[in-house]
Design goal:
This protein is mainly beta. It is built from one helix and 22 strands. Among the domains are: 33 residues, no CATH class; 30 residues, no CATH class; 31 residues, no CATH class; 82 residues. The strands form seven sheets. The protein has a four-stranded mixed β-sheet, with no helix packed on it. Strands 12-13-14-15 form a four-stranded antiparallel β-sheet, with no helix packed on it. Strands 16-22-18-19 form a four-stranded antiparallel β-sheet, with no helix packed on it. The chain is elongated.
Length: 342
């Protein structure tokens, strides 16, 4: 009794199937399954099923067509083997190919036409030339101002052969000037700025002005500081209100330079300060070195930030530095105020 296999047997292209026998039966008794193969015991031939019939695999080594020739209207097929040659009468068939003349007629875009005959003895070349056409190149001279119009090509349509079949032209209107945008590449920026009547907003990461910038009137940056027409700088603070810090230049006869100290901390401004410096020394330290940048001619005052009492400590002036040492470590932060003399 045969053992049924319900899954494919894959030999992985490496194992051989040795001493195997095909199923011995007749094509009439075999199962008609496409790709089935048997040894037909009735005809002693190997057969396979192609989906509709059993086909014999018997090799034909004796009879095959080895040549063909024409004799009048007859087509003669010669064979090798025991079968006789075949003769096919072609006289009743219609001619599929005959000599004919193809004429190319000149038209728009082509030069004078010509003709040639098929089945010629030598190769012929067909040349199609596009004729020259009259073309006039133009350049727009429109120079509309704000609110003006000009014509512009907005679309080109072509057919499958690449020929232009339509050109769409639209009228473009330039918006009226709103006095907000400035083209800094203009040859006369001064004249453009003079046209402004409203606010100007400049956006960008970096703005570089190679020469001097002179501002008349008042400029404000992010509502923080204002340069006024009275030669002063007003620091508004975080909110626009009536409380500001003003740096105002008095009447001077020469240039003056104010060097701001390079120090950390917060300077509390309680009034007008000329050449002042303030910082806070944290508690639990025995002293600190402060770089105030005001030189040695300074007045130094210390007070407790909690009790507001004046604190005395050992103070050594050393150029732009102060060395402050406490006899005992303070328990509260100490505020230090430095005032330049003269």
């Amino acid at each position: 009794m045969a053992i049924p296999f319900l899954q494919h047997l894959d030999l992985k292209s490496s194992a051989e199937l040795r001493n195997a026998l095909l199923h011995k039966t007749t094509s009439g008794a075999a199962s008609d399954v496409e790709a089935g193969i048997i040894f037909d015991t009735g005809s002693s031939t190997v057969k396979y099923y192609n989906g509709s019939a059993w086909i014999s695999l018997t090799a034909n080594t004796d009879n095959y067509v080895d040549g063909a020739s024409l004799s009048g209207t007859d087509l003669i097929l010669t064979r090798t083997g025991s079968l006789s040659d075949l003769t096919i009468d072609l006289s009743s068939l219609d001619e599929l190919v005959n000599d004919a003349t193809i004429t190319i007629t000149a038209g728009t875009g082509l030069v004078t036409g010509g003709n040639f005959t098929t089945n010629q003895g030598t190769n012929e070349t067909i040349t199609i030339d596009h004729a020259d056409v009259t073309r006039t190149d133009t350049t727009s001279t429109d120079a509309p101002a704000y609110g003006g119009t000009f014509d512009a090509v907005t679309g080109v349509t072509t057919n499958a052969q690449g020929h232009v079949t339509a050109i769409d032209v639209s009228t473009v209107t330039i918006p009226a000037s709103d006095n907000t945008d400035i083209n800094v590449n203009t040859t006369n920026l001064k004249a453009r700025l003079a046209e402004l009547t409203g606010d100007v907003t400049i956006t960008g990461d970096t703005i570089i002005i190679p020469g001097d910038l002179q501002v008349t009137g008042t400029t404000t940056t992010n509502n923080v500081e204002t340069v006024s027409t009275s030669n002063g700088v007003i620091f508004e603070g975080n909110a626009a209100d009536d409380n500001e810090v003003t740096l105002l230049a008095q009447t001077v006869t020469a240039d003056r330079t104010i060097v701001l100290p390079d120090a950390s901390g917060t300077v509390a401004l309680t009034g007008d300060i000329q050449g002042g410096y303030a910082t806070t020394i944290s508690d639990s330290v025995s002293g600190a070195t402060l770089d105030h940048g005001l030189g040695e001619d300074v007045i130094v005052q210390l007070f407790d930030t909690i009790t507001k009492e004046t604190v005395y400590a050992d103070v050594v002036r050393n150029g732009d530095n102060l060395d402050i040492t406490f006899a005992s470590t303070p328990t509260n932060d100490i505020r230090v105020l430095v005032q330049k003399i003269g």
